[in-house]
Amino acid sequence: MTKTPTKGKSAKFTKRSGRPISRRKFLAGSAAVGGxxxxxxxxxxxxxxxRAAEDEITIFTWETYHEPSWVKKYEESRGVKVNVVETxxxxxxxxxxxxxxxxxxxxxxxxxxxxRYVKAGxxxxxxxxxxxxxxxxxxxxxxxxxxxxGELYGGIPYNWGTQPLMYRTDKVVPExxxxxxxxxxKYKGKVTLPDDAYITVPMIALYAGAKDPFNMTxxxxxxxxxxxxxxxxxxxxxxxxxxxxxxxxxxGDAVVGYCQNIAVVTDLNTAGLPFVYSFPDEGxxxxxxxxxxxxxxxxxxxxxxxxxxxTPEWQAEFIQFSANxxxxxxxxxxxxxxxxxxxxxxxxxxxxxxxxFDKLVFFQPPEDxxxxxxxxxxxxxxx
Length: 383
What we know:
single chain, 16 helices, alpha/beta, 6-stranded mixed sheet
């Protein structure tokens, strides 16, 4: 699965996150035996639990992806309860799913992580024919990235984005063009990184000069280890999630760092703080998050929820709330009522520019995730 990141607009996203019977069908079938049911004793507890499960969907998602008011619209229209569980990192999402700490129906996984879940037996192939609103996906090239062993385990994109350099313009001068600014002694104790080996190690690898940040040689691993050791004195904190990063920067504790999501910059701007993001010369790690179903989630109602999340109306609300890119093209985004001044806060208009994707390096399955995690934990421990 590991591929050398390719360049150019034509490659876009190739270069680089059960129970079949629905409640409606169940009730229709029950009507035929209604008379007998009246005389029958109460269903056994396990049967009642199974029926309740048909009325519920549990999703494992990200901050800002599924706000209560949007989800409530779906629940009221379908009579289905949606349990929303949020994660703060790729590592946490995989660990909780793998351990069984969370049993979900639908997981929002980036393309580079899909193979890891499939190898662990945590996903089933995604039936895209059950999601007609996939026609609204305005980004291209994602299908190949989401295949594992020739099958579409990665499902359909829900959102894509960049993880650029972010900094405070009145504190970080001149305007940085390289990830090397994170190692600049002027900013000692004022740098942040997200607590996530999966997304952070590729950025360090790009800075360290790795030819392919997802397929590193032994010597490149050593360069990454040394770069992390050199960076440690610079770090103010390792943030856990978007809100944590916003709080750290908002309090003035940090002025420059690796941006897990550009919504952090947007939130800081809303608070009146002069933060911007930029795409360093070495390349910017970027991602696509996709609908992925588990065995227990392989149900019509789960696919119906996916379909609901891909309407222009839902996507417009999501994009404007979170400042994420969603999946709409700039044309459809405008038709959905998103004004240009807001679109400029996202990468939705950027994607129309020739050469924009040349700046990005989309996540691919890494050659040895355990080895990356070990280096990251070593860094956090202060080795």
